[in-house]
Write a structure and sequence with these properties.
It contains four helices and five strands; from the N terminus they run βααβββαβα. It has 142 residues and is an alpha+beta fold. The protein has one domain (14-127): 3-Layer(aba) Sandwich (Aminopeptidase), CATH 3.40.630.30.
Length: 142
């Protein structure tokens, strides 16, 4: 289990062993609802070799998720997602802090993530010490 570095946190980030539980949250956050298609995508992402799945709980319920994908000396932070009712409570920040701690433990000297420009996620990453390297256009079909 990983502990967030923030003091006085109501909850702590933890590793999530159940890929399906983690994927359900990701499916709802990115797909708007739990669907077979989004579950298949999220489960596939959750099974990336070597990745670590993390979550934040309110009680027993998983409310926010994130992923760390280690490679060479780089930690990629991916799949940040917080359910609507759990936003604004520091869940994403604690997940970022937990992954920073894990990256240090693993000896990964660089950490990277991709977020939507101007989003709350960008602000959370900046609060945790990340700096914008570049801006990228996100495309969507349909």
């Amino acid at each position: 289990m990983l502990r967030a570095t923030g003091e006085g946190s109501a909850t702590r980030a933890e590793t999530v062993a159940d890929v399906a539980e983690w994927a359900r949250v990701l499916s709802v956050v990115f797909g708007g609802e739990e669907s077979a298609a989004w579950m298949e995508i999220a489960v596939s992402i959750g099974k990336i070799e070597g990745s670590v799945l993390l979550g934040q709980r309110e009680g027993k319920d998983l409310m926010a998720v994130g992923q760390l994908i280690p490679g060479l000396r780089v930690a990629t932070f991916a799949c940040d997602g917080t359910l609507e009712g759990a936003r604004g409570k520091g869940n994403q920040r604690r997940l970022i802090e937990a992954r920073l701690g894990l990256a240090r433990e693993l000896g990964l000297g660089w950490c990277t993530s991709e977020v939507a420009p101007g989003s709350g996620s960008q602000r959370n990453y900046e609060r945790c010490g990340f700096e914008k390297a570049y801006t990228r256009t996100h495309w969507r079909l349909g």
